[in-house]
Amino acid sequence: MSATLTQPSATAETTAPRTYDPIPFSRLVSVELRKMFDTRSGFWLLASVGILATLATGAVILWGGDDALTYDTFAAAIGIPMTVILPVIAMLSITSEWSQRTGLTTFTFVPNRGRVIAAKAACTLGIGVVAMVMVAAIGALGNVVGSSIAGVDTVWNLSALQFTMITLATVLNMFIGFMLGLLVRNSPAAIVAYFVYQFVLSSLTMLLASTQEWFADLQPWVDFNYAQGQLFDQVPSAEQWANLGVSGLVWLVLPLAVGLRLVLRSEVK
Amino acid sequence: MITIDHLTRTYGSFTAVDDVSFTARPGRVTGFLGPNGAGKSTTMRILVGLTAPGSGSATVCGKSFSELPNPARQVGVLLDASAQHAGRSGREILTIAQRTLGLPADRVDAMLAKVSLSEEESRRRVRNYSLGMRQRLGLAVALIGDPEVLILDEPANGLDPAGIRWMRDLLRDYANRGGTVLLSSHLLHEIEVVADDLVVIGNGRIVADGTKADLLAGAGTLVRTADVRPLARALVDSAIEFTHVDGGLRVEAEAELVGRLALDAGVPLTELRGADGAGLEDMFLELTADTQREQPTPTPLPNGAAA
């Protein structure tokens, strides 16, 4: 007589009040991190961080010359490709939601788009720091191996503080990519915009500074590339920090705010 | 339960959604019907918070979608099956959904089984999926949180006839177990077979809203007989309007009245039934006549035929 015990499953399923917990931020971060590297392009971008670091180390050992075999040289050689790859990773995490239209799903799972963007920003920061620690490690290995091959003393001429400055500069670069991604929301256009911003714009300001005296004085205050570039070479003075803050406000923070506003308000189609 | 209340959305001078109100109730499949560009997708995007409403409101489970703590646990959404990263596998897309929603890992395989995507297919990248497979995957993503409401935009697109039957059975079963289904389509026959309630939209405005039975009640009667002339004469005598259709008549009257007339006239009938199929199509074309690119004709819509 089991039939009498059987309830229609429908009633049980729909009348019971169900409550749900909000999605915790940590979970969003872990999902966004996964989304950055679970595609072929994401995987190769990640792999290229390691590949280029190794290639750069090898290049310094092969062609650097004995007196170039210092920790500073290795770290710089590895750090330069990072200024291109890492910002692209940050940028694509934003633009793919639009270019691949995954935002349709992402932003229905999490209607509060600000939380999704914040999770992506946390991933960007985390990847930047981890990648630079990896750069330091590969650079150190290269320094030890390179100097022992050449038979010269191993020179550790890069302070932890200076390395922190380089990491900061790299993370700022990543957020330039992040910002351009928010503004443009299209993968190819954002990549082009990044190269214009980083390389074309900085060449132009350099040219302007070398020909126009008035601009040479002004440059540290208005040229974010310039102010940020100082981080690679030295621990900034108080004035240089101010340069970085003022130019960063104009070239990074303001456009970031505009991009964020666009993303929060635009239609997702 | 879905409640749309005086929803309006304009783009410049163009009104995409114009004072739209309707409800989709639990235990029923609500068909959201309208020609291309009538405002179906815009309404659905507003409903799930992807587009901001101009005025009016849309609520799901009594709340605005963005106020739901973990919306996909209560509302399954499939707006565009092609809107997935082409470089991810179907399994990866489901895994992202499972992790975002905080579900046990075995939901991924359960959903793949539910939408009949094989192990091998699930590991393929979505760029290599047919539209039908993408629809299945999209439905799996919508269902993974075991929601009580489903919002589906043109889910039958790209499915083969067996796939359409499968989806229809799935939605029917879902509604029978108490779920709410809002299903948009321009495929009249698809909607007609599965929907309990119909909302017809044209030019951004609701032009008809009610149960399928009510809306089709005025569709008339289809009657067939070997020789239609005596029956036609009887109808003319009773001042009842009718039109000739293949091998019979479509009569603007209740089936019972037509049957009685046939009995009185001594005409043997081979078929007597409500003219539902043609009725919905006529209703659709009639109600949305202003918004059609083509003038209404008795032939089926090209889109309908393509299904």
Task: Pick out its properties.
heterodimer, A: 269 residues, mainly alpha, globular, B: alpha/beta, Rossmann fold, Alpha-Beta Plaits, 2 domains, four-stranded antiparallel sheet, 13 strands, 36% helix
How large is the count of helical segments of chain B?
12
Runs of chain A in which pLDDT lies below 50 for 5 or more consecutive residues are: 1-14
In terms of structural class, how would the helical and strand content of chain A be classed?
Answer: mainly alpha
Distance from N terminus to C terminus of chain A (CA atoms, Å) equals 54 Å
Biggest interface reads: A-B, 40 and 41 residues
- Estimate percent helicity of chain A: over 70%
**CATH architecture classification name of the largest domain in chain B:** 3-Layer(aba) Sandwich
Whole-Å distance between the termini of chain B? 29 Å
Unreliable stretches of chain B (pLDDT < 50, length at least 5) are: none
Instruction: Estimate the global geometry of chain B from the Cα principal axes.
Output: elongated
General shape of chain A: globular
Can you tell me about this structure?
The complex is a heterodimer of chains A (269) and B (307). With 269 residues, chain A is mainly alpha-helical. Chain A has one domain (23-265). Helices cover 80% and strands 0% of the residues of chain A. Chain A is built from eleven helices and no strands. Chain A has helices spanning 9-15, 25-37, 40-63, 71-99, 103-109, 113-150, 160-184, 187-211, 213-222, 224-233, 238-265. In chain A, helix 4 (71-99) packs antiparallel against helix 6 (113-150). Mean pLDDT of chain A is 88; it is low at 1-14. Chain B is built from twelve helices and 13 strands. Helices cover 36% and strands 26% of the residues of chain B. Chain B folds into two domains: 2-209, P-loop containing nucleotide triphosphate hydrolases (Rossmann fold, 3-Layer(aba) Sandwich); 220-274, Alpha-Beta Plaits (2-Layer Sandwich), CATH 3.30.70.790. In chain B, a hairpin with a 2-residue loop joins strand 8 and strand 9. With 307 residues, chain B is an alpha/beta fold. The two termini of chain B are 29 Å apart. Chain B is elongated and about 70 Å long. Chain B has helices spanning 40-47, 90-101, 106-114, 119-122, 131-143, 161-176, 188-194, 212-217, 229-237, 255-265, 276-287, 302-306, and strands at 2-11, 14-24, 29-33, 55-60, 75-78, 149-153, 180-185, 197-202, 205-211, 221-225, 242-245, 248-251, 269-274. The mean pLDDT of chain B is 88. A six-stranded mixed beta sheet of chain B has the order 5-6-7-3-8-9, with helices on both faces. A four-stranded antiparallel beta sheet of chain B has the order 11-12-10-13, covered by helices on one side. Chain A binds chain B through residues 9-11, 13-15, 18-23, 27-28, 30-31, 34-35, 38-42, 96, 100-105, 107-112, 265, 267-269, and chain B through 26-27, 45, 48-52, 65-66, 68-74, 77, 79-80, 82-88, 92-93, 96-97, 99-102, 141, 148, 176-179.
